[in-house]
Specification:
This protein is mainly alpha-helical. Helices cover 61% and strands 3% of the residues. It is built from 7 helices and 4 strands, in the order βααβαααααββ. The protein has helices at residues 11-33, 47-71, 82-110, 114-135, 166-190, 197-225, 238-260, and strands at residues 5-6, 74-75, 273-275, 280-282. α3 (82-110) packs parallel to α7 (238-260).
Length: 287
């Protein structure tokens, strides 16, 4: 039987592992404390329910895979962790896209314009394609894609990230900034007299979501570029968890606001939110 060898470890790698394991625990904790608010699985499927389910449950698989990678301490000859890491990264991206999809439905619901919807879909694609292409160039200092590092990584099983992700975080930050400006413009130019509790919840939660994602992206950029490269993996799970938690909380808060207003509906389908000149309401619609 082949002899296992211990993987390289230092303070940065150990800290990154602890942080990602802790982030997974936060995701599980948040799920259980909000489980009572979620009563959607027995209703019919809609597009919004689908992307809500993806953003709510897929992070358990994506972050769970990161959790497994963080717990690995040994390497067996002949092993390769490359495909496992790629699959984890793909799940992370899908989770973030699903959460952003919910945000897009909220903005589109507040201003039903096909041109706006096209922009909301095309702009992030352009940003992230450009960031991906740039990340494989020497423009990023000490990127693991373009610069070799003197750390043994047999089978790519070491819990090690690369600085090339910084452009993806920057693209996300730019995207959220554009959406924030767009949401504020819609709120104060098109609906200046919207003052109800449900309306307040809708706009305030959407703005908070974008601000929190921008803060998280800013920290991710700093933590990707500033510390030694062994600390870079600390940013793997937090983005996914923050997106999932905030996206779910917005829908739960809308439902709670409807309950306080004694509107007996199921969880609001934000794609069906109706805006009029001086009125704001939700259509009774199961998801």
């Amino acid at each position: 039987m082949s002899q296992a060898t211990a993987l390289y470890v230092d303070a940065g790698l150990q800290g990154s592992k602890y942080f990602n394991v802790g982030t997974f625990a936060v995701l599980i904790f948040d799920y259980f404390i909000t489980l009572e608010a979620e009563w959607v699985w027995h209703h019919k499927w809609t597009f919004v329910r689908f992307i809500f389910t993806v953003s709510r449950y897929l992070p358990f698989f994506g972050v769970g895979m990161t959790f497994v990678g963080a717990l690995r301490t040994q390497y067996y000859p002949g092993e390769s962790c490359a495909k496992f890491g790629q699959a984890s990264n793909v799940l992370h991206i899908i989770c973030i896209l699903a959460a952003e999809g919910l945000l897009i439905t909220r903005i589109y619901a507040s201003w039903r314009s096909k041109r706006l919807l096209t922009f909301l879909l095309v702009f992030p694609v352009v940003c992230f394609v450009a960031s991906y292409l740039i990340s494989d160039t020497p423009l990023v200092f000490n990127s693991t894609n373009t610069t070799s590092i003197n750390i043994p990584d047999p089978g790519e099983c070491l819990f090690l990230g690369g600085r090339n992700n910084v452009y993806e975080y920057a693209a996300l930050l730019l995207y959220e900034l554009v959406l924030l400006c767009l949401m504020l413009y819609i709120r104060f130019s098109k609906y200046p007299n919207v003052v109800g509790q449900l309306q307040e919840t809708f706009f305030n939660d959407s703005v908070r979501y974008m601000i929190y994602i921008m803060i998280a992206s800013s920290f991710s950029i700093i933590l990707t570029m500033a510390p030694p490269v062994t600390w870079v993996s600390i940013t793997d799970s937090p983005q996914v968890v923050i997106h999932s938690v905030l996206a779910s909380r917005i829908l739960f808060n809308l439902r709670a606001s409807e309950g306080r207003l004694r509107i007996h509906t199921t969880l609001a389908d934000t794609s069906e939110i109706q805006f009029e000149e001086d009125r704001f309401s939700t259509v009774v619609h199961d998801i």
